[in-house]
Design a protein that fits this description.
Helices cover about 50% and strands about 20% of the residues. By secondary structure, the chain is of the alpha+beta class. The strands form five sheets. Strands 6-5-7-8 form a four-stranded antiparallel β-sheet, covered by helices on one side. Helix 8 packs antiparallel against helix 9. The longest helix is centred in the first third of the chain and has 32 residues. The protein is elongated and about 80 Å long.
């Protein structure tokens, strides 16, 4: 396990873990609230609204709507259970059963039109996208937007790069290169870019103690220009702006993160062996969350927005148990004019479920491998 993690005081460890759990709580609750809100707008009765899975720790039943609000033992995930869902069979099978029964209960999810049911299913991921944008706007208004004057502080480090091999860590503040004091992020980046193949002696401050390490920039091509890099993203400096600029910055950052997430998923699906390092499970997110907290709230809020967008996109994947899987069967019903055939449904269900389980197992293996490699749990 990471020595730095072991050195963390228990109070700091608990504080960081509490912040991460609170972040997950908000992301999950608002995802499920998206389903809940659109279901109620379509007059579908909701029986349970829950955070987490497993045995219920606390429950409150609304005397007005009859909804059971639950807080369950395992604080990962959640659900919004509507009348007409049995939680065991897939969308088209439930719809066939409803049609065969001939029930006309308007509060039943299956009684709604395909477009109404599709809107309810997609409301969760859309809520995550709205939340991500709101987080970015809030962060821009409260903490400011990233300026061109990056701080001389090490940000996220890429695997297999000179920075990683040299033992640099996110949050290290570079104070000098080859004996020359470093006063800005621009100076740090320009020096590294112009030092391809040259040995650089970096002096950096970590937890108040100054260390020194030698590192040689490797070759990279950016915008058609050959330069040296050591493999980290600088921590941006932030400047306060007005509401118009905050909205513009949040919009640009949202589009950029959304596109990067889509491209990352495409690359992982197309070539999983080459891009396996991008996979991150809950353990990996905990570790990243701890590191981003060290860089300040502005950076952590950006991280939370990235996770919210990723949660929304992952839920749109056409796998059983995900919103995308449910939506795919509804779209098929909408196109065909009737639910998909039972045999085809079973084939899609078992094939998709197998792929989903393999992906989950792979992400868990990747996270645990990082722990064994000494990268820590957080």
């Amino acid at each position: 396990m990471d020595a730095n993690l072991l050195a963390l005081p228990a109070v700091i460890f608990i504080q960081k873990l509490a912040v991460f759990v609170a972040t997950l709580f908000v992301l999950i609750i608002l995802h499920e609230y998206g389903h809940f809100l659109v279901a109620r707008l379509n007059r579908v009765r909701v029986s349970d609204f829950a955070f987490g899975f497993g045995p219920t720790i606390a429950k409150w039943t609304s005397p007005r709507s009859g909804v059971n609000y639950r807080f369950n033992l395992v604080p990962i995930g959640g659900y919004c259970a509507m009348e007409g869902e049995d939680g065991r069979t897939l969308e088209s099978e439930q719809q066939r059963a409803f049609l065969a029964d001939g029930a006309l209960d308007d509060g039943n999810f299956q009684a709604k039109s395909p477009l109404q049911r599709l809107s309810i299913v997609l409301a969760g991921p859309i809520a995550n996208f709205i939340l991500a944008f709101a987080i970015l706007v809030f962060s821009a208004l409260v903490f400011g937007v990233a300026s061109d004057n990056d701080a001389p502080t090490i940000g996220p480090i890429m695997d297999g790069t000179p920075a990683q091999r040299a033992g640099l860590q996110m949050g290290d503040q570079v104070v000098a290169i080859n004996g020359v004091p470093v006063t800005s992020g621009a100076q740090l980046i320009n020096t590294i870019h112009s030092s391809l193949g040259k040995v650089l002696v970096l002096r950096y401050r970590r937890n108040g103690i100054v260390h020194q390490v030698s590192v040689t920039p490797m070759r990279a091509v950016q915008d058609g220009k050959v330069m040296g890099i050591i493999g980290f993203h600088p921590v941006p400096a932030f400047e306060h702006v007005g509401p118009i600029m905050a909205l513009r910055s949040a919009s640009e950052q949202f589009v950029s993160v959304f596109v990067l997430n889509v491209e990352g998923i495409e690359q992982l699906v197309a070539n999983p062996v080459q891009h396996y390092g991008q996979a991150m499970g809950v353990i990996g997110m905990e570790r990243a969350a701890s590191e981003f907290q060290d860089l300040g709230w502005a950076t952590y809020f950006s991280f939370a927005a990235v996770i919210s967008i990723a949660v929304g996109l992952i839920n749109l994947l056409p796998f059983p148990a995900l919103d995308g899987g449910r939506g795919a069967f509804i779209v098929a019903e909408l196109v065909r004019g009737r639910p998909i055939d039972r045999e085809k449904e079973a084939l899609v269900h078992y094939g998709g479920f197998a792929v989903l389980m393999m992906l989950m197992a792979f992400m868990a293996f990747h996270d645990i491998s990082n722990i064994i490699a000494g990268k820590g749990v957080l």
